[in-house]
Amino acid sequence: MSTGVEASRRATAPTSPGRVGDVRRRNLSLILHQLGLSGQTTRARLAADTGLTKASVSSLVADLVSAGLVMEVGLNRAAERGRPGLGVALNTAAAALGLEINVDYMAAGVLNLAGDLQFHQVVEQHNAGKDPEEVLGRLTELAGQALQQAEAAGLTVHAGGLAVPGLVDTASGRVLNAPNIGWRNVDIAEWAASLVPEGILGTAVFNEANSAALAELWYGHGRGMGNYLFISGEVGIGGGIIIDSGLFAGPGGNAGEIGHIVVDPEGPECSCGGSGCLERYAGQDAVFVRAGIEGGNDAERMAALLEALEDGDEQALAAVRRAGHYLGVAASSTFRLLDIDAAVLGGNFATLERWITPAFHASVEEHAPAVLAADDVVVSGLGRQAALMGAAGSRIRTVIEHPHLLLKQH
Amino acid sequence: MSTGVEASRRATAPTSPGRVGDVRRRNLSLILHQLGLSGQTTRARLAADTGLTKASVSSLVADLVSAGLVMEVGLNRAAERGRPGLGVALNTAAAALGLEINVDYMAAGVLNLAGDLQFHQVVEQHNAGKDPEEVLGRLTELAGQALQQAEAAGLTVHAGGLAVPGLVDTASGRVLNAPNIGWRNVDIAEWAASLVPEGILGTAVFNEANSAALAELWYGHGRGMGNYLFISGEVGIGGGIIIDSGLFAGPGGNAGEIGHIVVDPEGPECSCGGSGCLERYAGQDAVFVRAGIEGGNDAERMAALLEALEDGDEQALAAVRRAGHYLGVAASSTFRLLDIDAAVLGGNFATLERWITPAFHASVEEHAPAVLAADDVVVSGLGRQAALMGAAGSRIRTVIEHPHLLLKQH
DNA sequence: AGAATTAGTTTTCAACATGAACTATATGGT
DNA sequence: ACCATATAGTTCATGTTGAAAACTAATTCT
User: Fold this and answer.
1) B410 confidence band (pLDDT: 50, 70, 90)
2) Under an 8 A CB cutoff, do B16 and A30 touch?
3) Which of A89, A246, B110, B343 is a Cys-bridge partner for A40, taking CB atoms 3.0 to 4.6 Å apart?
């Protein structure tokens, strides 16, 4: 007697036929997924944990081993009676390349199947207004170094992911509009295709905030949270919506743009053409102006703001409190609209944590009381690795969800 | 060479093993889904449309016929050469019961697999503050009449769906909080279980606005839209988010509560405990007060408002324009946040269409320019049938997505 | 009447997970 | 030492499933 759960957690009806082979694809993925949860384990335990039979697990694991996704790691002493199992684990030699282009830096790193960031390099560099070809050229170099290191360490890089601060069309590999670096309708599919020579899965483009939101979910403080709004304070304000332990990307793949929620219908015009957007109240520039901080590049101004806050400068404190207040307004609306009850703050908001979260909390309590528990606001600990790890992690997930793409036979 | 679509349209990794039999379940559903699109067709065309082989289609259709979900409808003259196909179609004798409890009426109807509303009855009745047992008792009577009519017409009612104006827990069959009828934490699972005697799928509870949003998608003006925000103006303001032709229900099943988006951070307190909520600006009571309409029940006041608007009463016009303006603020935020670009207005907002949509459009153009095309705001035509059809339709979808539940053997 | 064309069924086959039987390797008690 | 017991992993027969191809059926065109 069901009361209809299946109708609320909607799984849309299939539009393509199921083949017998789909079952194996699903179970290959299931094994990888379970290995991600269990770490090192044995075939017998995998069978018990997944509900598959021992026979099936053995067969599936054999395929995954020959695809280089799973490795055998000697005996697994269970310290109990019976024959000890042979240890199996995700193959740490399988990896994905993660890249990020941001306003004042670019970064590259290599993430293995188990989620360990193996190499990571950040290059400070101003990318705003630069020619995309030039920026991509330098990124190619940086990626090449990372790939070389990976190869030297015996890793196989199966895919790449690039995070950029703006709207992207992941499907076609284009950056639609990245205002903060001045890119508009840049097609990087061709560039991406040649980037990872061995990676038969190619290189995909992602939105920076969405990538960071996923990085928190998989590798950061969002682990185990399942549902939250990630708010990224870079030059603009980005966001990522995590629902049921997955990204809610929206129909076009660009949901989560919390920076252009209207927080005051009578508010000032925004660069997006609208008015009263959150970004005009809690964006980096808005806060600097309110705090009376002038001159220097972004990093210098942020340093000056932090110093002023440490010194108890009333103008700086008020500016940050105001940002937190409006951030809370936008978050309240989002919580109510999407039925979620937690937030993760990243980017500058993580840096400003001490001063911004009290105002944020108070504002949410005012506008959407009883939604947020005290410990449901978490601050990112991933820093500048977040977007890059999310982009690479998305590709790792692609491998975990579609391992059959890497099987030799067929 | 993929650029990673599969990573953006996230399909979370499986957590349960796939069996060979799952393939058939999926293909049974695929056939029903295609029949819903095609109407009457033939096995050969089904094979061409779905990608399955003719042999598989024949076998699947045979199962569905014996389950009473598909019927053969004589020859299908194609007016071309070759052997004519045997017509097959969704069995119009398979149906679901739809029910709605609202503030000042309750309704019942029976919807068949093809989406035709067979019986439909509305009873004007004030339910606010009444004892749930009493209301459910009267609804049982109404449902009984509908079921009797259905039986007399030879229909088989497989499941039921009830829409209520408030937060529900569909999984456990409870109404968590329905402020406008005064229900709080009412467990109706037991009542629901005994409602549809033959229906082995039971009766499920849904949120009224979400149900109405789905009704628009399947049977109303939302057909073919795929992505939109449905805004329901009843006593409160509800909403439903349709993404990729499915309901985005959120983690708890109650997403879409657009009525409590903050449209003015300095705004008045709301009954929800927050402040500046949309409902305080565009809710029924707020509009009546602004328009200077007093006395009478809701229906009478709405009639008075419409008369005043027709007469060109400036106060009434301003009140409705103001509601449209703030509705546009909340919609703008939603569009940006969720990356959607269309809206469907239902309930009172459909009634007030002529006066409210110009202000709505202007407001969206001001706060989120270039998001909305002129023809991307649509008005519901389903009226009081919307919620009921959505609730029944959700159960019809359950059958279409899980037809194996109704197969005799196994 | 016969060729052409389309619909639908039957037959054969390969992929796949299951379940049971079997082999392999450990521990613990006597 | 030896054997019962327990656990790990493999082998093999079986049932379900859709694909592919051959086949039968029904209609139109010439």
Assistant:
1) very low
2) yes
3) A89
